[in-house]
Amino acid sequence: MSTARTSLRAARFTVPAAALALALAACAPSGAADDAGDDAAAAPAASAGPITVEHAQGTTELEGVPATVFSFDWGATSVIDALGVEVQGVPKQNAPTLFADLASSDSVIDVGTLFEPDYETIAAQAPDLVIVGGRSSATLPELKKIAPTVDLSNDWTDNVESSKANALTIGRIFGKEAEAQKLVDTLDASIADVKAKAADAGTALIVLTSGGEVTAYGAGGRFGFLHDSLGFAPAADISEEAQHGQAISFEFILETDPDWLFVIDRDSATGQGAKTAEQVLDNEIIAKTKAAANNQIVYVDPTTWYIMGGGVVALQSIADEVGAVLDAR
Description:
Blueprint: E1 4-5, H1 14-27, H2 36-40, E2 51-55, E3 58-62, E4 69-71, H3 74-82, E5 89-90, H4 100-104, E6 109-110, H5 119-125, E7 129-132, H6 140-143, E8 149-151, H7 159-173, H8 177-198, E9 203-210, E10 213-217, H9 225-228, E11 233-234, E12 246-248, H10 250-256, E13 260-265, H11 266-270, H12 277-281, H13 284-287, H14 290-293, E14 297-299, H15 302-308, H16 312-327
Parallel strand pairs: 1-14, 4-7, 5-6, 7-8, 9-11, 9-13, 13-14
Antiparallel strand pairs: 2-3, 9-10, 10-12
Helix pairs in contact: 1-8, 7-8, 8-16
């Protein structure tokens, strides 16, 4: 059947980084524009005192701008990276392909997995800050006994606003408020642009394949950004929990018959499973849909959508990806 595929695996969020540099240059005084890119990647500004951070599980006090940071949340890591700040420790086993350089670097400490931190290693390193979120959020009670820990989990029912709030929090922690605000402003502009393009694009259905099974996601859920912010009309009223979606059949997809079918290949993102999403959906039933007939089955970048999911940098990448698909119509 006819399909379209987009991928951002080859580069790590280059579009928002470039947009940030341009925005900073535009705001710089005369003679400073050439240094904008360097300023964006500069070390965090020194803090005159403690920083109080409000987060999903309470309030955490930092002595100042943290010099040593361990992050268990890839959405937060992507924002920190975009602000030009280095992370010293990550769960290497769970690293998405976009952060393969961190996973392979001898200078970056392996701090365990998303679900099982290496508490002994973390305690030995005594980081100034540990960041958790989503899958790793349950580990905060133990981690905070070792080092200051904040939970930057996303609220999947309001992904954009919680992602923007987390970005601004990260900016304040590292003395990069202006740069974080530029990331937020760039995302807002991109959302408005894609939403205008999607106004006449028709309906869409988001599905995730895993182990040969198919699950649908709708507005207000984990992947609802496509509907709630980017403006695609839902092809069906999906009854779902924010995280887990609704199990569906191929017949359901045909009966729903969306104009667009956005497909997330979970097995590709996690390195598991014997069948790709293309193989799962390569059948006579799906071939009868409008999406297949019009070359509007889009196999999205699963690392960004599934592993990253939240955070302004990931949402920016998703908006850019969807915008490019609409431009190619």
